[in-house]
Amino acid sequence: YTSSFKVSAYVNGISNKLCVRNFIFYISKPINFINCLLFTEHQHSHLYQLQPMDNILAIKFNDYILIAACGMAAQYYIKLTDEEEKVVILDSHKVLVSVGDDGPRKRFGELIRANLALNKIRSHGQQADAKTAANFIRNTLAKAIRDRNTGPYEVQSLLACYDVPVSEFDDTPPGAHLYFLDYLGTMQQVPYGAHGYGTAFVTALLDCHYRPDLSPQEGIDLLQKCIDEIKRRLIASCPNFICRVVNKDGIEVLKNVH
Fold this sequence. Notes:
Blueprint: H1 2-13, H2 20-27, H3 30-48, E1 56-60, E2 64-70, E3 73-75, E4 78-81, E5 87-91, E6 94-100, H4 102-122, H5 130-145, E7 155-163, E8 175-181, E9 187-189, E10 192-195, H6 199-209, H7 216-233, E11 241-247, E12 250-254
């Protein structure tokens, strides 16, 4: 009974490739029942292995957000480059940074950027605020994992935004926002977040030293500590991180953090 419930949960929640008729056929024979269980387990474990050697992190402060993304691109055990850009600039005050296979990651980033640009045209030049953009990305991920044709976007993402009122009549409150998203469509607003094997070290360090009122230089020093910890603790770590800051003035590259 426990195993059948487990398979049923996978069929309904993750592997849409099995219809009800095939599911009844599989559980009618012991061998097919075991194959069904192993198939759904394999599908779930495959989706979870999303380039764990890639590491991204972001830290939100009162007036700005710091972002760092590992610049390494690799295929199996071969490293291709240390300058891979994993940051997608959605507009003047929004940045989406993702990890995953190169194909799904780039395709997903371009899809989000194009749709937000289309929404800006339909809204007569007004950009979507942080909450709207985050919910759109979340809905895109949630629909894809339930779509039998396209399948899930195998990416893990962080969305960094700074809302700026466009005029005196705009009631959008200014401020920094950071959202944590994964391939299952999970979305949560967080003060800091990370994806990859370095997440355990980064979150432990930030739990001790993070304060939302840190000055820009103190925030950069904290970001550098997180990057150094990843390089020191991981066996296969990235030698180069590409860093950016998002604030009320827009998006800037941090050249003194690596």
